[in-house]
Amino acid sequence: MDQGSANPHRWALLIEDDPNDLDLASEILRREGFSLMTTGSAVKARELLRARAVDLCVMDLAMAEQSGLEFLVDIRGQYSCPIMVTTGQADVETAVVSLRLGADDHMIKPFPPALFAARIAALMRRAGGERAPNVLQFDGLRIDTAARDITLDGEPVVMPAREFDLLAFLASHPRQVFSRRQLLEQVWESSPEWQDESTVTEHVRKIRLRIETDVRTPRWISTVRRVGYRFNG
């Protein structure tokens, strides 16, 4: 795995097993401002996605251990980041299938580096426009991230700042699973030297007391065993 240092808050996962294509795509992504995690393995890619939230996934359809299209279906069901599929298969049918299965864009290799960079930038513009609306509205739960207000079934919910930040972050990524370490990095912006995962556990417990009807069977924030937490939007 390669981890760059362009921007610790903007990460891309690059799944590519061809050394030349890996070098080219890595260089372009770094120029676009991403720090990178790289692998050619479907199994390792899953581990990396569980370890860190990413802003972009660029994946070649040829990968070890699993069909690229099967992997695409799996991760699209769990993660909301933009997905760029690259492939050496030049047929239209492969492109149509990958887009219908959840890819946000599809490029045939070899591709002009400038075109790849431009389409990555376009993906991120679209994602930025769609993400993090000021008001997150769910069934009975309303979170106004600008006003920092929460209502549940029309009643105001008072919540301390850090609990609000944690709930708003999870609600901004419905159905996506985050580990406690990821939440420390994203919400607390913790350095690796100071990461007490029990802090996240305690804050989730307090949030549940404020918004859950039954904390033993939570409606909004689920615990994913051995992984972390998921907001059920």
Report on this structure:
This protein has 8 helices and 12 strands. It folds into 2 domains: 11-130, 3-Layer(aba) Sandwich (Rossmann fold), CATH 3.40.50; 135-231, Orthogonal Bundle (Arc Repressor Mutant, subunit A). The protein has helices spanning 19-31, 42-51, 68-76, 92-100, 113-130, 161-171, 180-188, 197-211; strands at residues 11-15, 35-39, 56-60, 83-87, 105-108, 135-137, 141-144, 149-152, 155-156, 177-179, 221-224, 228-231. Residues 1-8 have low confidence and may be disordered. Helix 1 (19-31) packs across helix 5 and helix 6 (161-171) packs across helix 7. It has a 5-stranded parallel beta sheet, with helices on both faces. The protein is α/β, with parallel strands linked by helices and 233 residues long.
